[in-house]
Amino acid sequence: MISRRQLLLGGVSLAALAGCAGRPEAPRSSDPAEPLPPVADRIEALRRRHNAEIGLYAVDLESGREIAVGDGDSYAMCSTFKAYASAAILQRAQQGRLTLTDAVPVEQADILSNSPVTEPRVGTTMTLAELCQAALQRSDNAAANLLLRTLGGPPAVTAFARGAGDDRSRLDRWETALNSAVPGDPRDTSTPRALGTGIRAVLTGDVLDTAHRRQLEDWMRANETSSMRAGLPPGWGTADKTGSGGYGTTNDVGVAYGPQGQRWLLSIMTRAVGDDPDAPNLRPLIGEIAAVVVAEFGQPR
Fold it and tell me: 120-143, pLDDT tens digit by residue?
């Protein structure tokens, strides 16, 4: 016989089952996530948080998809010009006008601040290839000036930029004067779009032949000063060149390479808001901007 207690418990269980049968299913965890805010809004949030001016031009080189925020604004190039100077040396080697093994004397008078590779070589010679490596990978300032001297001075870099499809970049001075970066000074400036267009051409276009283009990419992949890499996913690499100067000016431009064959051009130029020539650099901001590009290009259109 069923006791009164068992009957009551059975009734409760049946009622619970009946209630569950009529209840709608809970939403599944696979529901799509909410879309990200517009890129311009995310960049504006970074601008306010870092009290900085930001220019960004990015291109997915496989799909052609672009991100452009303040990409026509003018910024001091600072050491990003060293990518052009080295590419111009490679172009002249390609043309037979010089060889990468040509020896260049290094004298004490050549040494400037941030010359970590050339300073120990004072009294000896360095090859043009060694100078390119020093300028690209360690941003060695004396090496950059020795490259400029070989090319014929800053106007040669401007002319090379024009030949690479960059219609705005101009180099007027030598290291280290070109890093003054006074707001409004047109000397030694570019825009994110113009500089990015030129660097894209030398790294992925036909400005250089295959062998010399590969050499430039190899040198730039070994860059030790990259800021954008901090914002890229694990397994990614870059061929990029940084630059920094007065008023917090901090730049990074180059191509990011992903493990599934992705190639993204990133041209990021920034400076601090205000009139402090000694404002600290904005290297962390460069990584955060790169992370915005990662999030945006990772979203389906």
Answer: 999 999 999 999 999 999 999 999
Instruction: Tally the domains of the chain.
Output: 1
Quote the DSSP letter at residue 33: P
- Per the listing, tokens 């990011």 go with 256
Q: Is 253 contained in some domain?
A: yes
Q: Provide mean pLDDT across the span 83-99.
A: 98
Write out pLDDT tens, residues 179-196.
999 999 999 999 999 999
Range of the domain at 93: 38-297
| 180 is a catalytic site residue | no
Is residue 5 in a domain? Answer: no
Task: Please check whether residue 256 is in contact with residue 232, taking contact to mean a CB–CB distance below 8 angstroms.
Answer: yes
Q: What is the CATH number of the domain that holds 58?
A: 3.40.710.10
Exactly one of 13, 29, 30, 79 is catalytic; which is it?
Answer: 79
Residue 24 lies in a domain: no
User: Is 14 inside any structural domain?
Assistant: no
Q: Is the pTM higher than 0.85?
A: yes
Give the long-range contacts of residues 219-225, CB within 8 A, separation 24 or more. 219/86, 219/132, 219/133, 219/136, 219/137, 220/83, 220/136, 220/254, 222/133, 222/136, 222/137, 223/136, 223/137, 223/254, 224/137, 224/138, 225/137, 225/138, 225/139
Contacts of 246 (CB under 8 A, 6+ apart): 76, 179, 180, 181, 182, 277, 278, 279
